[in-house]
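Attaching the record inline, Q. Sequence:
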Amino acid sequence: MQMNKNPIKPTFLIIILTMFFVHLDAFSHENKASEVTVRKLPDEEILSLEDDEAAKGLTMKDRGFASMYIPWKKTILNDWRLVAHRPQGEPVSATDKTKRAIFNELQKNIGQSIIQKNIISFIETYTDLVPKELIEKFKRDKWYIEERKGIVYFIPLQKGPYKIQILGELGSFISVFVKFPDDRPTLSDVCRELLPRIDLGQMKRNEERFSKAVCDNYLESGGIQIKTGQRKGPTGVFYGLRLDVEPKKQGGKETKMVMAKNKDAVVRAECIKANTGSTVGFRIEVINPNTDKNIVLVVRDNISYLFDVRLINEEGLDISPMLPEMAKDKRGPNTPKTYRYGIILPGTSHSWFIPVPNQVRADPRKPTNDNNLQATPKGEYMAEIKVVVGYFTQDKGVESIPKYPDFQVLRLTLPRISISVDPNLFNLDIIKTYIGSVNKLN
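Structure, as predicted:
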């Protein structure tokens, strides 16, 4: 990346500061706006099992055990049905910690579009997927009984025109049913709007599993499957989508690299681990995929304002300190030394090395101050990297900076990464650690 050492003029500084003041808080504003669109689905609008006769052309292969449907996990994940229905076990109360764990698992695997903080109050928890009486009968008759590995839950909600029912077992599986509105958007549009963690481009279409009359789409990839089709419910025919996820089967290994992009740039982040397996930092790479445009970044000396690494604890709470307001930053917002331009040429990239946060809030429900900070304890966390970088584009070969650039903001939240933190490694040189790990691979 080429650095332009010419200081930014005061006019530019005012523009840049305004952009950052507005967009540093944009994530919370966006989340609050999204929460307004997500509400609890009333009981009278919740669908139960759809009518199997509504699926015209249902073959014996499609039906499977339809004549004796028992909603074990194995049946749920292999059946043709779309509706994720309310469990038939006994309702039980769950601790706040358990509900946070459910929320955290859902947000990690599905994304933040429908898994907003306000859905925690919608979570219903149950003893089992099937009625207690059925389990007792199976025990008497010595039939197969599927053992539960985690608490069973159900979440009915609505976002805009979409009615959504989520059924799952913590740590085992997630089933998401989406009832489409009458104008029936495309599968890619629905995934983009509701299921941002699902990359359809990485999934394989399986046309042998179900007949087209039953599921017009059936895609699968490493612990994830999606099927869509037309069904009949109590109020008439509807079109729906079913997403099934087995978190522990995805990819077979924990994620080491995550990625997000906008129309101009791609951002990738990968964990840098010590020999012990603990994460000491991240390599964050901004890539210019264009062939004819430079990307000019507004780079700040305090790198945390560009790449903010947030640590999420096992309860799903963000425990990282809040960034100080730029105007109060001791490094000074108005001095030319705190800003510079960084040019990324077409087809190239630039990397930054960011350490794991060495401080967290002792009480995540209270604001950041000296009395509420502690050294990051040893343990397991989810890391979420928020990217907020001012930039503009210019034609390839242009070296001068325009007087009034058309500033934009590269604003992304990367998918969460599971990490292990050891405070004894905070002083490690993360660049040397990264080079050492690359040399081992080579």
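The two ends are 25 Å apart (CA to CA). Residues 182 and 253 are 40 Å apart (CA to CA).

More tomorrow.
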